Amino acid sequence: MALTSIALTPRIGSEVRLDKAALLAGDHAADIRELLVSRGALVFRGLHLNDEELRTVARSLGDLRIGSAKRGADGKVLTEGDRGVLKVSLDPKVNPDYAKFLFGNLLWHMDGTYEPVPPFATLFTPARLSREGGDTMFASTYAAFEDLPQAEQDDLATLRVVHTMQAALFPAKRDCTAEEFAVWSSYPQRSHPLVWQHKSGRRSLVLSTSGAWVEEMHPAESHDLLQRLMLHATQDRYTYRHKWTPGDLAIWDNTGTMHRAMPFEAGSTREFHRCTLNGEEPITAPDLASARAAATVA
Ligand SMILES: [Fe+2]
Question: How close is the Cα of 107 to the center of ligand 1, in Å?
Fold first, then answer.
């Protein structure tokens, strides 16, 4: 069966129509990867994948993550759920290790900005939906960058941003305890270029709520710049909002998109199963000197 896709918005998101058996067989894995990177987020309807099927699809598309970059209360590295399938739930009974981080999912973010090589992609399927709300939104940081004026693109390409766990989580839990804040602050912070020169040749903004400050910039200017870029990148024209139905599968390219969950009722049993694909390239800044030299020669 041929793979067909329909754009859900002009700049991000496509619905993919593909027979479940063909998806599990990996027949179209190369096409799906290409579409994933070009469209940022893909959705499939009516698949109803169980955990083993989710792992199979994940392995066909990349390197399924088994160990997590996060540590538990005892300092041990957390595993990525059951052999690579993590239950995403705010209920500590479902996921005692992760529930204390996942409230940050309500804010726009990239996954793994504390890692040297952030994850390539995420596969996400609902096990139980919330009664209200709970949509997932995606924003294309490729499209947001590509629409900026050339001079601004060049300026931004010289900057680096420090990402921290407290920047990611504090805005979502302003009534945190001093102990919680101390735990978040104990996580390593990571500096990344603000603009990612991908091996594919495309460039994207490396934006996330975890972006705490721009290096070597006055804090007020840094704050204003990061706020302005976040507002720019999350305009309607760069976003797709997915309303879930049972059996859906969403896959997003974590290297060129941000994502967030929309609010849902308190005490919800909302639960998703997630597979993460390990990153394949570090975040590398554009080499502006080489680009200018090449332009001059041309
Ligand atoms: Fe996330």
Answer: 9
Q: Tell me, what CATH number does 157's domain have?
A: 3.60.130.10
Q: Which pLDDT band holds residue 258 (cuts at 50, 70, 90)?
A: very high
**Selected residue with higher pLDDT from 212 and 101:** 212
Q: Which helix (H) or strand (E) holds 158?
A: none
User: What pLDDT band is residue 246 in, cutting at 50, 70 and 90?
Assistant: very high
pLDDT tier for residue 160 given thresholds of 50, 70 and 90: very high
List C-alpha distances in Å: 8 to 14, 22, 181, 241.
5, 22, 39, 9
Alpha carbon distance 194, 212 (integer Å): 12
> pTM to 2 decimals?
0.92
What separation in Å is there between the alpha carbon of 274 and the centre of ligand 1?
10
For residue 286, the CA-to-ligand 1 centroid distance in Å is 26
Residue 108 Cα to ligand 1 middle (Å) = 8
Total number of domains constituting the chain: 1
Tell me the CA–centroid distance for residue 226 and ligand 1, in Å: 19
Question: Could you give the CA distance from residue 34 to residue 37 in angstroms, rounded to a whole number?
Answer: 5
pLDDT at 220 over 70: yes
What distance in angstroms lies between residue 110's CA and the mean position of ligand 1's atoms? 6
Tell me the C-alpha to C-alpha distance, in Å, between residue 229 and each of 57, 81, 152, 295. 34, 33, 11, 27
CA of 259 relative to ligand 1 center, distance in Å:
6
Domain range for residue 149? 4-297
